[in-house]
Design a protein that fits this description.
With 456 residues, the protein is of the alpha/beta class. It contains 15 helices and 13 strands. The chain folds into three domains: 103 residues, Probable tRNA modification gtpase trme, domain 1 (Gyrase A, domain 2), CATH 3.30.1360.120; 129 residues, Four Helix Bundle (Hemerythrin (Met), subunit A), CATH 1.20.120; 162 residues, Rossmann fold, CATH 3.40.50.300. GO terms for molecular function: GTP binding; GTPase activity; identical protein binding; metal ion binding.
Length: 456
């Protein structure tokens, strides 16, 4: 399918113990023979490591290296692949790549190795996307989801659903194409209903899967000196934010990612919101408002040692359009338990109230679990629950398939003409095919694979 040979550095930039230059294509072996000189002469054997030197055009050594040749189709791309492992400094790797390009390879585009694996049938589109998800996973739960998808479970589910729909579509097409012939009657509604149930089952876990894959943003908001920075440090389990008894210590937003029950949550410590004539503090307050606007969840922090006042109410009103957890902090110095009881505000989207003492860690585990439950809308990921749709693209395609399958069933119930029913069924099949790549255009492929780094 491809008549050229691509090459790229497959390891991250910077210094390291090893740097890998990868080639794929019909000339990979020939180029390797030109740029790599084994210590013991002889041809490169497939799937064997050879020790030697990368050499320049005159035969002078560039770097000591190991070379691996993987002959098609037993490679990631199903093409001839060569990997040259040299020392991991910037200069040896760049010089090796330059030598490979001079010998006839072309610099690969982002994601082009994985794209070739997809186009050559080595993996489907869900597995290609899962490859990137494995690389970018920030938690063990996110990695488990990516590995499960890389194993092919979603592709198999989608293929099974499409197979269930192909026979009804073939029957409807026969009725359209041969109206004068006696086409044997076929009961196809049960297959359509079963397929719709299968699509809805995949959709049911999509919101949870997307949160595990993409994470979420939670903004800590409140008056100055209520303990927002201390709560950030307690949730992170490290001293990341500066904490002092002086109100207004935090003058800007600070973002750090915490692993809360397997969810990568970006916690945003914001400047205390209050009226101020200090231009620097005013800027910090404005950034706090912007951080809250962009957050998925608001963590409204109140000082449990004092009754809430008008300033607290003003801040609470800023969170009224957000899912919110109210936190009564400084619980350790409270002598009247009534101060940490329910929310003092009639919040339209309040998901819970938690009492904490950030300085001692009391209540932090409860807060962590409350945040994860709020983001998931259900229980955290458990054993055997790694089979969740975790891509917004897949969710949207499944939603379109479900909508058109419902339209098919409604049309059948209303006695709509066969051609309209077949049209909706075809759209549903194509939507499912977009997930695995069986019905996909070049624009979508470009969008997906350009998110990859060069060399993958």
């Amino acid at each position: 399918m491809h008549d050229d040979t691509i090459a790229a550095i497959a390891t991250p930039p910077g210094e390291g113990g090893i740097g890998v230059v990868r080639l794929s294509g019909p000339q990979a072996y020939t180029i390797a023979q030109a740029v790599f000189r084994p210590l013991h002469p002889g041809p490169l054997r497939p799937h064997r490591l050879r020790y030697g030197y990368v050499v320049d055009a005159s035969g002078a050594p560039i770097d000591e290296a190991l070379c691996t040749y993987m002959r098609a189709p037993r490679s990631f791309t199903r093409e001839d692949v060569v990997e040259i492992s040299c020392h991991g400094g910037a200069l040896p790797v760049q010089m090796t790549l330059a030598r490979v390009l001079a010998a006839g390879a072309r610099l690969a585009r982002p994601g082009e190795f994985t794209l070739r694996a997809f186009l050559n049938g080595r993996i489907d589109l869900t597995q290609a996307e899962a490859t990137l998800d494995v690389i970018r996973a920030q938690t063990t739960a996110g990695l488990a989801l990516a590995q499960a998808q890389l194993g092919g479970w979603l592709a198999q589910e989608v293929r099974d659903l499409r197979a269930q729909l192909l026979e009804p579509l073939a029957y409807l097409t026969a009725l359209i194409d041969f109206p004068e012939d006696e086409v044997p009657h076929q009961e196809y509604l049960p297959a359509l209903q079963t397929s719709l149930e299968g699509v809805e089952r995949l959709l049911a876990g999509a919101a949870q899967g997307i949160v595990y894959r993409q994470g979420a943003r939670a903004a800590l908001v409140g008056r100055p000196n209520v303990g927002k920075s201390s709560l950030l440090n307690a949730l992170l389990r490290v001293q990341r934010a500066i904490v002092t008894p002086i109100p207004g210590t935090t003058r800007d937003t600070l973002e750090e990612t915490a692993n809360l029950d397997g969810i990568p949550v970006v916690l945003i410590d914001t400047a205390g919101i209050r009226e101020s004539h200090d231009p620097v503090e005013q800027l910090g307050v404005e950034r706090s408002r912007q951080a809250l606007a962009g957050a998925d969840l608001a963590l409204l922090v109140l000082d449990a040692t004092v009754p809430p006042g008008p300033a607290d109410r003003v801040i609470a009103e800023l969170t009224y359009d957000k899912p919110t957890i109210l936190i009564w902090n400084k619980q350790d110095v409270v002598h009247n338990p009534d101060l940490v009881a329910p929310s003092p505000f009639e919040h339209p989207h309040l998901l819970g109230v938690v009492a904490t003492t950030a300085t001692t860690g009391a209540g932090i585990d409860t807060l962590s679990h409350s945040i994860s439950r709020a983001l998931l809308g259900g229980a955290p990921l458990g054993a055997g629950a790694a089979h969740l749709v975790s891509s917004p693209r897949h969710r949207d395609a499944l939603q379109r398939a479900a909508d058109h399958l419902r339209a098919v069933l409604a049309s059948c119930a209303q006695g709509v003409t066969v051609d309209l029913v077949a049209g909706d069924l075809t759209v549903a099949l194509n939507a499912l095919g977009e997930i695995t790549g069986e019905a996909v255009g070049e624009d979508l492929l470009d969008t997906i694979f350009t998110r990859f780094c060069i060399g993958k």
